Amino acid sequence: MITDKKERIIEAATASFSQFGFKGTTMDSVAKIAKVGKGTVYSYFENKEELFNEIVDRAIKQMMSAGNQALQPGIPLHENIRHVLEAILAFRQNHLFIFKMVQEARDIQTVPVIETIEKIDQEIIDYLKGLIQQQIEKGETIQQDPEFLAFLLFKTYLLLISDWEKHHPPLDSSKITEVLQRQVY
């Protein structure tokens, strides 16, 4: 029963943050959506930031799971990285909570939300770094530092699917794979 209330609160907070953003969500609004007293919300979460961080951590776990599901054994690293990035960024774009946070960080520049987006990006970079290190341990020759390469691949991929497409036709996946391959080797 206790867990059910906590889950209801988390679901209500996710809905509120997704609709109204970090700035527009209050513990009172979360309590109303969850149909519990405000004191009940505070019995599980000390403040809005703690509740927000719980939701962020869950979203990151789900996003990394999407990345794991995209991995395909036996294909080159650069292709796997493209598959993983496609899966992670599709999750990020389709997950209403994360989409709203990216929007709020860009448009309103709410400090806790900007820090959250930076945290999410760093989690993605760390994940890619781990993939690169695994390949190095298997004997693959990679000239770059794994962390630098992970950062470079992630940021390049973001630019190719977002900024490039603002003024150019979208690139097909084979072109993106080619660009990533040149960065890896």
Q: Count every helix, treating DSSP H or I runs of 4 or more residues as helices.
A: 9
Give the second-level CATH assignment, the architecture of the largest domain: Orthogonal Bundle
- Return the CATH topology of the largest domain: Tetracycline Repressor, domain 2
- Strand content range: under 5%
Helix content: over 70%
Q: What is the CATH first-level class name of the largest domain?
A: Mainly Alpha
Radius of gyration: 19 Å
Runs in which pLDDT lies below 50 for 5 or more consecutive residues are none
Secondary-structure element sequence? HHHHHHHHH
Regarding quaternary structure, how should these chains be classified? single chain
Q: Kindly state the number of beta strands.
A: 0
Keywords: DNA-binding, Repressor, Transcription, Transcription regulation
DNA-binding region: 26-45
Protein name: TetR/AcrR family transcriptional regulator
Domain HTH tetR-type: 3-63
